[in-house]
Amino acid sequence: MAKIPRNVIDEIRNSVDIGDVIGRYVQLHQAGQNLTGLCPFHEEKTPSFSVNEEKQFFYCFGCHRSGNVFQFLMELKHINFVEAVKEVANDHNIEIPEQYISTQPKPPVNNEVRQLLTLHEKAAKLYHHILLNTPAGQPALKYLKKRGMTDELINQFNLGYAPDQRILKPFFEQQKIEYQLMRKSGLFSEDQEGKLRDRFVDRVIYPIKNGQGQVIAFSGRLLDTSKTELPKYLNSPETPIFNKRRTLFNLDIAKKTARKTGNLYLFEGFMDVISAFGAGVTNGIASMGTSFTEEQVSIIGRTTNQLDICYDGDEPGQNAIDRAIGLVNDHRPPQLKIKIVQLPAGIDPDEYIQKHGAEHFNNYLSSQEETTTDFYLRFLRNGKNLNNQNELMAYLNQVLKVVAYVRSPLEEDMYLQKLASEFDLDRQTLKIQLKQVQQELGINKQQQKGFSQAPRGDYNRYNGPVEERKVEKITRTELAEQILLRYMLYDREVWMHVTANHDFHFVHEKYQTLYLLAASYFSENGAYSTADFLDYLDKSDLQAALGQIEQLNVEQQVDMRAIDDCIHIITQQTPLAAQIADKQAQLKEANSLHNTELATQLTIELIKLLKQQQQLKTEETN
């Protein structure tokens, strides 16, 4: 197996977004220009892990680990560099030339997955072209325009049309696509004789993408709904690249927005997501026309801290909200909170936007957000006559079981007050009843930690006192070294200015090593790239040092006077460091010659030099 060349490694690394890769393992949120989250490499309560998507590297202020996408996987999964490169390539369906991979047969599934993805991409382009550029697509285009779809939205979601004429099969046959591949794609149905026919006919096509934005399936909406013998909506069957339980519509785009907003909106249908997108709500997702699944809950939990369930306000919509809350509460990660935004009965987000407009819809989402407890106070009324004492008692018993799991004493008191006022009850009596319910359910407020496993209720995570990030003090000399290296890496003029002095070298070994490796890097590369340079560093302490340098908040405009100040501070230390190194070498030689008298004298001189060095460090720190 030949060594993977640098240009292939660069192509693989530059083809992926480090935020997307790390986002699979760490919940990231936008913090200024960077993404931040809890470090996966050490225990912490407040985020100190930072990801810079522009420079494609990560750095932890707590444990000081740093690196690019390859080093992240190496640290996390304890694999070597080549294995990390292969994993990134395989995950993003990037071909590595045969001569650079193992001579052992490659698992056929990887090649099959790549081919199926290519097939779906071609189908999506064909359906999109038919919708926009052919007479056959005009009725479908007219339908979408009537539904409020703009040209921008149609292009954004790559919407298409599968005509009555079954054109996909001959299109692929013309391209010599193998029968078995087409059979496995889910794009065709198969009769008893094994003949394939286009699965989607006379349907508006909604491409379904995975988290990396690759088309993996389709959903087709019947254009002529008078064909009552056919289902109104038809989805692709499960295939090697499509698992409906693990797929969320628009997740590839929504997760990027969620890092900034801190939440995702769960809508019932694809059109709701698309219409909301057109109204500026780009963090909307939807399940695959089936019940919400625990796998989808897990994916959401890795993406955001809050899920807003936004379903129709009619009875089926409310029942769907109830099921979704129960599923999320049973399977959610500890940090995931649930909120409800319930639309007026009989209207979905798509219809709401068409009727009231984008601005009104955005205002509604922000103003009508409620806790799951508020939802159940209303939902549990359904089908009950609260003027009947028995039914009122049944309702109150159900509601108190919901309120029992509320963590905040203030919020608990607020709900009791609301019930007492509405039904003319004594609040203290309700409080006593609530305590009895909590005892029956085994809820101890003093010991309750994290989220309860109760099937209902809204719970707030308690993380304990805010943990202050420890800031490590560094000496004046080391700071000067970091600042100087930062400018040297990014500015060619500064690099030439410093290297013109052939006697210059850094005081600390790690910065001198970075300097020498950078010289080697620049001999092979014209421009500097953080992610690229990190591949030159095979030691974690050097990666951490570079991470610290990259995190420096320095002026973008270079001031050569500041550069010279840094050089002066460093060179002030250099003679003393050189004397210490020389004295240590002399002492080692005297000991090897068993010259006790000389060794004693050199030891005394070395101690004096070390004291001087320590005194200088103390002065710098102060």
Give short descriptive properties of this protein.
single chain; 622 residues; alpha+beta; DNA Primase, Chain A; DNA primase DNAg catalytic core, N-terminal domain; Dna Topoisomerase Vi A Subunit, Chain: A, domain 2; 5-stranded antiparallel sheet; 5-stranded mixed sheet; DNA-binding
Please describe what this structure looks like:
By secondary structure, the protein is an alpha+beta fold. The chain folds into 5 domains: 6-100, Alpha-Beta Complex (DNA Primase, Chain A); 108-242, DNA primase, catalytic core, N-terminal domain (DNA primase DNAg catalytic core, N-terminal domain, Alpha-Beta Complex); 246-368, Dna Topoisomerase Vi A Subunit, Chain: A, domain 2 (3-Layer(aba) Sandwich), CATH 3.40.1360; 388-457; 476-621, Orthogonal Bundle (DNAb Helicase, Chain A), CATH 1.10.860. 52% of the residues lie in helices and 10% in strands. It contains 26 helices and 16 strands. α3 crosses α4, α20 (476-490) packs across α21 and α20 (476-490) crosses α24. It is globular, with a radius of gyration of 32 Å. InterPro entries: DNA_helicase_N/primase_C, DNA_primase_core_N_sf, DNA_primase_DnaB-bd, DNA_primase_DnaG, DNA_primase_Znf_CHC2, DnaG_bac, DNAG_N, DnaG_primase. Residues 262-346 form the Toprim domain.
